[in-house]
Design a protein that fits this description.
alpha+beta; four-stranded antiparallel beta sheet; seven-stranded antiparallel beta sheet; binds 2-oxoglutaric acid
């Protein structure tokens, strides 16, 4: 499925665009089964970096995110996610060959905390390059009541940082204010959102009983080089993955 001219223009002007049914029901089912296996793991197997946290609402240990998903342990999943249509869409928005920078699953299970308003570039990405594009892939339905992601959509998109690195743009829980300047993107499994590293976004805590799992594939331009393992090595030094029996609390989370 090729992006339309309108979608490419929206991405450039507003920092994000939504593409419906980019992955088929069969593809989503494979991804969902794989994510469920990972959710139930204790975080000690294979080369996937898991981040377990204690839920602020239920007190239970939940897998909040998993990164470095497309290592040697998941060749079939890597092929499915990095299919020719994925690379073509990223090529269209980046204007260059896309190279995978990082990939993660955000589980946002019932009880998972909010993700405060932030720009991805503020997470130290400027050390590596000044532009990235991310494909959000909805695995579960994203609804207003199970923590669908909101993006700033006020016609003032700027390709720059709006605050200091490592700081969120607001400490207030979503819905972000003023509400009419943000677009809450409800999505069906298989829908994607392409967004750049400067568009402010975030999502509330998941207070429903429905999981809201999304995958995020982030790419940089080939001109900026192959940065993925350098990024992960740096990140693991500063923010090491953990196992189920060493869950963190929210206080350690920044951007
Ligand atoms: O998955 C979400 O709800 C938002 C996560 C997010 O913005 C991020 O991980 O950068």
């Amino acid at each position: 499925m090729e992006l339309t001219r309108t979608q490419i223009d929206e991405f450039r002007q507003n920092g994000f665009t939504v593409v419906r049914s980019f992955f088929s029901a069969d593809e989503v089912q494979q991804l969902s089964d794989w994510l469920d296996d990972l959710r139930d793991s204790d975080g000690t197997e294979n080369d996937i970096a898991t981040y377990f946290e204690t839920s602020p609402t239920s007190g239970e240990t939940v897998l909040v995110r998993a990164e470095h998903l497309l290592g040697e342990s998941a060749p079939v999943i890597a092929q499915l996610l990095l299919k020719p249509d994925t690379l073509a869409a990223l090529r269209a928005v980046l204007g260059d060959e896309p190279l995978l920078f990082k990939e993660k699953a955000n589980y946002k299970l019932p009880g998972c905390r909010s993700d405060l308003l932030h720009q991805d570039q503020a997470a130290g990405w400027g050390t590596y390059a000044d532009f990235f594009a991310t494909m959000l892939i909805a695995i579960d339905e994203n609804r207003v009541d199970n923590a669908a992601v909101s993006f700033r959509d006020a016609g003032d998109h700027a390709h720059k940082l709006l605050g200091p690195e490592w700081e969120v743009l607001s400490e207030d829980d979503p819905p972000f204010q003023p509400e009419n300047e943000y677009r809450l993107v409800e999505a069906q499994p298989g829908d994607i959102v392409l967004f750049d590293c400067y568009v402010p976004h975030g999502s509330p805590a998941n207070l429903s009983d429905a999981p809201r799992r999304n995958l995020y594939l982030t790419f940089n331009r080939k001109a900026d080089g192959d940065l993925r393992m350098r990024y992960y090595r740096d990140k693991w030094e500063n923010y090491p993955p953990n196992t189920r029996d060493a869950a963190r609390d929210r206080a350690t989370f920044k951007v």
